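Rotation project, supervised by the postdoc (A.L.). Task for the rotation student: set up a whole-complex structure prediction and record inputs and outputs verbatim in this book. Inputs entered:
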Amino acid sequence: KIETSHGGLEEGESLTSRLPTREGWWKPSFLFQGFWLTPEVIRSTVLMQAQFRPRADDIFLATYPKCGTTWLKALAFTLANRSQRPVASHAHPVLTSNPQDLVPFLELRPIEELEALPSPRLLSTHLPCTSLPSGASTLGCRIVYLCREPKDVLVSSWHFTNKVNKDFHIDLGKAFEFFCEGVSIGGPFWEHCLGYWKQSMEEPGRVLFLKYDEMMANPAEHVKMLAEFLGVPFTEKEESAGVVEEVVRLCSFENLKSLPVNSTGVSDRIGGLPMENASFFRSGKVGDWKNHLTEEMARKLDCIVEEKLKGSGLSF
Ligand code: A3P
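Outputs recorded:
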């Protein structure tokens, strides 16, 4: 038995048998703490919530899947470590490691691995803010949240799930229906965004809310903002030496996609689901949904999202 931080004792293995379930995008999904997750993620999240001890200087990189997690990991790692790992170094870790491996997933990695990390820790998560370790907000742990235009998230997720699951195929129409119903992996998408959005409104110094599309339009400004938020602002000397632009270039889609460490090989990061490293780098474009969704689909999803976000001040 595991004592969960969100109330009561749960048996890790049988937990899902007591949760609402329905056919999901990829596998049967279970409603856990308000979001549709796979049994594997629920079990590892329950463990994390029971055992993980946040530290006040932890920084969480939070994303809904396919919103630019890989990019955010590369940027945050590069910025936070640049005093020991000069951005221009030919041996920079971003050149030799997939960004997924530079910042571990809070809910997917063994607790001992996370415990062994030196402070300040960078940890990534796809969990909604309400499922983060209890204590993280009272301790003042900072959060960077990156979201993305929902139609692009849908298309990116659809490509990704069909690519990484060899014996699985979902057609776009079905994926679209699930997404609109909120039953995408880790959905509802809009609830995920809204949770972090509200926190960022209440505590702007603790939660930085970023949008993929805006970052793509102006990466240098966002890199500076991110550095500031991480507590490692650029010095004037760095700015005039062009370090901001070097970070942008090092972590750009084109550069990351071209690196052998990202364009070849297969890694099993979550256990039982080997993925090609290249699957994290597809087209890296804003508005690619136009190549896949009909106008009617786009209108329908826009209406749903607009309705769900109404009054929040958040829009896409
Ligand atoms: P597309 O499928 O639209 O190309 P995540 O990292 O959360 O899984 O998100 C993956 C999406 O981010 C994919 O979008 C991927 O191509 C894009 N991506 C990966 N690296 C990127 C980078 N350095 N800059 C911009 N987009 C990137």
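Student's summary: The CA atoms of residues 128 and 154 lie 18 Å apart.
Supervisor addendum: Confidence is low (pLDDT under 50) at residues 1-9.
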